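Support case: user asked for a sample of complex input and structure output to validate their parser. Sending the pair below.
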Amino acid sequence: MSESGVGAAVTAVQRPRRVRPNYAPYLLLLPGLAWLVVFFVVPTLSLASQSLQTGNVETGYSLTWHFRTYVDAVSQFWPHFLRSIIFAGTATLLTLLLAYPLAYFIAQKVGRWKNFLLVLVIAPFFTSFLIRTLAWQTILTDNGPVVAFARSTHLTNLLQSLQLTNNDSLMNSRFAVICGLTYNFLPFMILPLYANLERLDHSLIEAAGDLYATPIKTFWKVTWPLSLPGVVGGTLLTFIPAAGDFINSRLLGNTQTVMIGQVIDSEFLRVQDYSTAAAVSFVLMFIIVVIVAVYVRRAGTEELV
Amino acid sequence: MTETTSGDLRLTGVTKTYDTFTAVDQLDLVIPRGAFFALLGPSGCGKTTTLRMVAGLDQPTIGQIWIGDKDITETKAYQRNVNTVFQSYALFPHLSIIDNVAFGLRRRKVSDHKAKAMEALELVQLAHIARKKPGQLSGGMQQRVALARAIVNRPDVLLLDEPLGALDLKLRRQMQIELKMIQSEVGLTFVHVTHDQEEAMTMADTIAVMNAGRLEQVGDPATLYEHPKSTFVANFLGQSNLLEATVKSHAGSIAELDVHGVNLRLPVDRLVNGASSVWLGVRPEKLRLVAAGSGHDGAGAENRLTGVVTDASFTGLATNYLVRLPWGQELMVVQQNDGTSRVAAGTQVTLGWAPEHGFALDARQDAHAGAQDQADDSGAA
């Protein structure tokens, strides 16, 4: 703040001299910009144009500004949009509940075991996403120990009353899809939270205690607000991909759990109705942007130092 | 409702050990209510550990801590009526200044917390920045906010952990005076931890010098300086010249001491009980330096030594000399810049001082204890 003032004063005193314009920063930006143009801007525009075209794969498409496709897409697939948002939101909340204590523990309490535990968090990434998701089919299988345990403790009944199960099975149910989403995106929550909580100044915790705050008050008044940037980062990294995910709902769900990612997948590759697929993609993008904008604004992270 | 209700802070037999290391060893200390008390010592002497135990941030291994007649040893930090000004200030970065100051009041559900917090900010002259965030403030301002945040709760004891350590010299001087004024204004017990002897002497009315987890000496600044009880205190608080002396006689009120064949005198009550060999100490600024043959050789002073100036450095306020005595020992002499003529290195000089300016220490102690830990204070005496 004050440095800039001092700097200005110094340059004012010095003899003015011609400064050769420095193009290096722009040159360094070029590859990134080119990448964005070729692989984001152009495809997005092509997708937008596709969504407003009519025709079919055999005869070809022509741009007719057919906005009706959007109306049809939303009226036909609104339950899938809603379901995706709810599933992704629930999974995000669950990852937050699981990840926060874990990240806090790794960042603040374990000392030299820190790096080892972080490797354990990342270790599942060494296996394919598909394999890890398929593993949940085995975990939740009807004659497996998890289901046996859930049935004996009447957890199944509870989940069934919440309409999360597939009758008395856990597999091919809402429960299974949410479990898969939660599991697959957990590291994306842990890592930003860890990065944030690791920087938490322990003297602030001591200061809160010194100022009569109980440990619980200290958490809600100091630790939690200071960790909000990590929470926002983690929830965005989890929610956005989870809302568009189609692997978990396909491998772990049933016809009642179809998410919007599956709809896009089948419209493009099976039905080959490119216009509807493109329109659905755009609506999904729009919904996510709106939700994220509202969320980031509510979280008020821009106020945090 | 925030009226202080209890009395003195007392530590009885407090010991803190970490694995094999003893940070604080059998500490007994009474800090009277309303005192400005300094815990002074080099880093690692246990002063911060002591402070953290009083705050409730660390638990003593053995011993009790009392405020008045209440044993608070087992009380959690957030239940103690004790507040701390942390070395790093530890202001909450997400809260405005006023919310930082009101934090303690809110937790205790004090009704008019906003008004009280504003009052505290006025006390430290920062009412105008109440809406800002800590990150927008300079170090000196943050320091005062931290002070206001602690004072506003009217604790039984206010702990200050090297609160001025992060400030530059000029600001530190200013804050020393300000802190002292605030303390007399609010009348709280201040316990100030510092390694800076000058800071402790400027601010505190009682100083406890700590070394290696133990108390060396407790007293007011003048007593500690003029009558140190150990070589550590003599060297850590200012500088001292220590001469190896043998007590020849202590008839009457003045004792006669032999220092390498020279007869020197010292009031009897300064002598260490019964000891025949002592360190005879004298502060550098108590020595009067006169060039030999200038006519008035140490006039009026009863104790005299002769030597050769080996080094003279002018600091503005004073001139610091090193004078080599016939047996090779070098004494530090500080001559105030009061108009007396300065002498150059190589000059033969006489050093004189009044017997009552000397002090005696047990000869079994290390003559250099505390000297290496000292802050840079050459010429400050």
